Amino acid sequence: MKAVIFMRLKNNFFYTLRENAKDEDSLSGNLLVRSGMIKKSASGIYMFMPLGLRVKQKVENIIRKEMNEAGANEVFMPFLISADIFAESGRLSSFGDEMFKLKDRYNREYLLGPTHEELFVIAAKEKIKSYRDMPFNLYQIGDKFRDEARPRYGLIRTREFTMKDAYSFDIDEAHTDIAYAKMTKAYHNIFDAMELDYRVVKSDTGAMGGVLSEEYQALSDMGEDVLVICDKCDFSSNLEVASVNSDYKKEEKEKNYEIVETPGAKTIEEVVNFLSIDINDTVKTLVYNIDGEIVMTLIKGDRELNDTKLRKLLNATSVEMATEEELKTITTGTFGSLGPIGIKAKIIVDNEVLNMVNFVCGANKDGYHYVNVNLKDFDIYKAGDIVNIKETDKCPICGSKISFQRGIEVGNTFKLGTKYSEALGLTYLDENNKTKYVDMGCYGIGTARCISAVVQQHHDENGIIWPVSIAPFTAAIVLISNKDEYASKVAEQIYKELENNNIDTLFDDRDERPGVKFKDMDLIGIPYRITVGKKVSDGLVELKTRDGKINKDVKIEDIVKELKNI
Ligand SMILES: [Zn+2]
């Protein structure tokens, strides 16, 4: 296969849309559909058209090159996986409704791979017998399937998507650290090559399990994740795991609690207004079903509870808001009047509540609250950090100001530890002939997410502005008039020369008005546009960069040299 591809628009599959896509809820989704790069075939499922596929392949080749240079070996895993394999690792049930399941003609169960740890472990077993058989790293670039409840944002949240996933196999965590560092370096090279503005943030290990997880988040206003970034030190974290280091403390002599009437006041704000008190003196009470047990949580009135932190604090797998029915098992109170006094449930409090005195909370009776409540008035089962960090909080590392930004998760890296090797029996013999579990890392990149993130960051009102590294074509030749024989000849000649110099080139030789051609080239975002028009009789063509930084006339014979120089 030739490294570079050339394309004449006449008699080839190329189209653009004048109107915005009706069913796209993101800028990148709209631009990619309008520029004829992708087309939605069903909710969360997309076709890649020739130009879109070119971009996808360029992204994949950047990834492939860096993975190979980091010493990883490429494999290809099937999409269709026997359910037995996921049953063994326990993920058939833990993955939940996001997994696409199906049956074959003999009624045997299968699934469409949502992720591939299990298969890679099976592959690794073929090689690993002793400590001498490691380290190594395997990767693939292939499709994953997840039954998203709400597919959205174009290629960002889809039900079928291409991912690069890599897995490292080592004798212990110290050696996994070496593999992890190599992948980290490769990831920086990859995202830098795509000219993405991104941050690496600590995150929750979630369904993957393991000991450490980091996300590569491309900054974008429409990102689904909130990132917490310190203005001073290098602290950066996903909101769901950012620790709160509150210095809140109230010093006051403890009083005895009393019941007060608070008719109609249910929310914290209503109680604060009705009693004319400081929100810092209120406690918000929430009731959860945690792995089947109903528990009560207390946080300071101005805070939001963080489910992920609560789940981790209790080492639980499932955290759900309690239903009305479930609430009845611990109190006669209703939502809106809850408090810890006299409750028949474990009480979990946030660290900040430990520093509160004489606070206000529900009395488990509609229309009433307790005032001057203190910790001595109820039993605490456990305390910990269970709230979301706020932008007014200080950096948990250095105490400086923090800010929130939104991000699109384009990659992630996990230190899995021995979670999968234990579940699937991946062992080796060490120097002393003792059986040990293999230590693993796993490393993902969503290729379509990268494309979307680049478009979110690189565009203007006329369309996409691709970085050269992943543009479908580096240069476009626009022939103003097909009827002008000399101009046609010059355009053909430049096209041939660019081909000889391995510069990916698109040749707009359609019988269209110049305005249409210019609009299309802007929309599809080709970095360099060479216009062969009227000045060709003076020996000149026009060179314009998509970002508008260069716009000048160049001698016909210099155009290739000029492009190579840039
Ligand atoms: Zn800091």
CATH A-level architecture of the largest domain: 2-Layer Sandwich
Task: Output the number of helix runs.
Answer: 14
According to CATH, the homologous superfamily of the largest domain is Bira Bifunctional Protein, Domain 2
CATH C-level class of the largest domain is Alpha Beta
Bound ligands:
zinc ion
Structural class: alpha+beta
Low-confidence stretches: none
- What is the gyration radius calculated from CA atoms? 29 Å
Instruction: Write the CATH fold name of the largest domain.
Output: BirA Bifunctional Protein, domain 2
**What is the overall pLDDT average?**
94
Number of domains: 3
Q: Give the helix proportion (percent range).
A: 10-25%
| Shape estimate | globular
Number of strands: 32
**Portion in beta strands:** 25-35%
Separation, N- and C-terminal Cα atoms: 27 Å
Labels describing this entry:
30% strand, 14 helices, BirA Bifunctional Protein, domain 2, six-stranded mixed β-sheet, YbaK protein, binds zinc ion, nine-stranded mixed β-sheet, 3 domains, 566 residues, Rossmann fold, alpha+beta
Which SSEs are present, and which pair or pack?
Elements: E1 6-8, H1 27-34, E2 38-42, E3 45-48, H2 50-69, E4 73-74, E5 80-82, H3 83-89, H4 91-94, E6 100-103, E7 109-112, H5 117-125, E8 136-145, E9 160-170, H6 173-193, E10 198-202, E11 212-219, E12 225-230, E13 236-238, E14 258-261, H7 268-275, E15 283-290, E16 293-300, H8 307-313, E17 319-321, H9 324-328, E18 346-350, E19 359-362, E20 368-373, E21 382-384, E22 402-417, H10 419-424, E23 427-429, E24 435-437, E25 439-446, H11 447-457, E26 459-460, E27 463-464, E28 475-479, H12 485-500, E29 505-508, H13 514-524, E30 528-532, E31 540-545, E32 551-555, H14 559-565
Parallel strand pairs: 1-29, 4-8, 16-18, 18-21, 28-29, 28-30
Antiparallel strand pairs: 2-3, 5-7, 6-7, 8-9, 9-25, 10-11, 11-22, 12-13, 12-22, 14-20, 15-16, 15-17, 19-20, 22-25, 23-24, 26-27, 30-31, 31-32
Helix pairs in contact: 1-11, 2-6, 2-11
Residues 230, 232-233, 235, 395, 397-398, 400 line the site of zinc ion (ZN).
